[in-house]
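Contributing new records

If you add data, match the layout below exactly. Sequence lines come first and carry their own label; structure lines follow with theirs. Keep one chain per record. Anything else will be rejected by the validation script.
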Amino acid sequence: RRFGRSLHGEAVVSTQSTGYTSVLKKHQITTNMFTTGTVFLLGDLISQQLIEERGKEHQVERTVRSVAVGTVYIAPFVTFIYNFADKLFGPSLALKAALRKMAVIAMFSPLTSAGYIAVNNLFQGKPVSETLQKWRYDLPTIVLNGYKVWLPTHFFLLTVVPLRHRMFISNFVGVLWTGYLTYAANKAISPENLDKQGTQDEGH
């Protein structure tokens, strides 16, 4: 098996699917990065326009940054996770193999979200202390919500949907999830949490 299959699988059966799979085989890493960048572009647009309702105050630099983080970090890292799970347990759709793959994906999930926050903050020039605060106060909620979204999705994809038919379903969920992720990663830490930290620091 060659490294770097699609971030969430390959395409549905159709003329589009055949074309996508052909390109994927020839340019796997590049295709993964392009697909993931597109997902993060749409996700941040959803985040800023539908969740945050920014309208004309849309932060273009944040969208560009989200696309960059998704392309240079998320795409290679999650591709590695999927390939690692496939190498361990094979492409079988059997329930036992699917559950084992889900366990591997769940194990790496916190690193995916934590890494996104870290790289996103790095691109903004924020200090490491702010990233650590974000991990402390917001990361557990992000990871928990990720499990709620992705574990049922992965179970469906790994037990029902053949590898070559997973792309569109997974990317549709991915766009919605990315909308939440970019919102949560860029949201300021609540003053209440910062006040709690200050009180704890004074106590020490």
